[in-house]
Amino acid sequence: MALPFWIKAGIGIVLLLASQYHFWSRLSSGSIFAPEFPRAIVILFNWAFGAIVLLAVLQIVLDLGTLATMLVRRGSVGVPDGVRYAIGGLAGLLAAIGVANAVRVPPVEDVEIRVRDLPPQFDGYRLLQLTDLHISRLFPERWTRAVVDRANATGVDLIVVTGDFIDGSVAMRRADVAPLADLRAPDGVYAIPGNHEYFFDYAAWMRHLSGLGIRMLPNAHSVLTRGDAGLVIAGVTDLSAPGVGQPGPDLDAALAGAPRDMPIVLLDHQPKNARRSAARGIAIQLS
User: Does residue 1 surpass a pLDDT of 80?
Assistant: First the structure.
């Protein structure tokens, strides 16, 4: 582009620094998943990193289009600087929209699920699924509080959390996860670990989350009753667990002793085993 060298060099340096976001995150906390910077800086890094990725994609599309035009015209084709500026601005705008959507308190989405042989006592049963909260400097205590308030306001029968509560150790995230202790539903709050819990001292997080009143279901189940009818809530560990010396997902263990005549809702962080779960008679898998 027709810019002075010092401007292009400056932009290049900024892009290089932003592209190393995960390296700076590792320096700040020891993990690429837990950037320990002020939230505004984390948001700025996410915006810049996203803009670089989008700019790369748009640049490739533009260059492929230019090459195709050259082949058709059998000659060189110049791309005006204005087009380059436009795709740069578009990349920045799309990245900003993406980050804005990511950091908002998520809206509640209503999904009606029909379950075969569901006891009439559970007809209309309402369950709220929270997943991949990734509580961190990006999603701090006030964000968690807003999520909890919105969850409680739904007035559902049961709340489940399907993993990836956090990014960071218990010491780093203790205050940020504290509002989770206020999650309320008549049938309680059940959860399973996601892969990120294994990145930050799995055992410590399982103890801490249990201490917040959340019933963890690592390869385990619980039975909810309405009179003489029941519903099984089962959970399995994450596929990444064996990599850190922890038990992997075990559906047999999760359902050991569970009544055979009740519908089963399975909590499994990753959906990869959904077909196998369906073959086992699981009514609903939440991932």
Answer: no
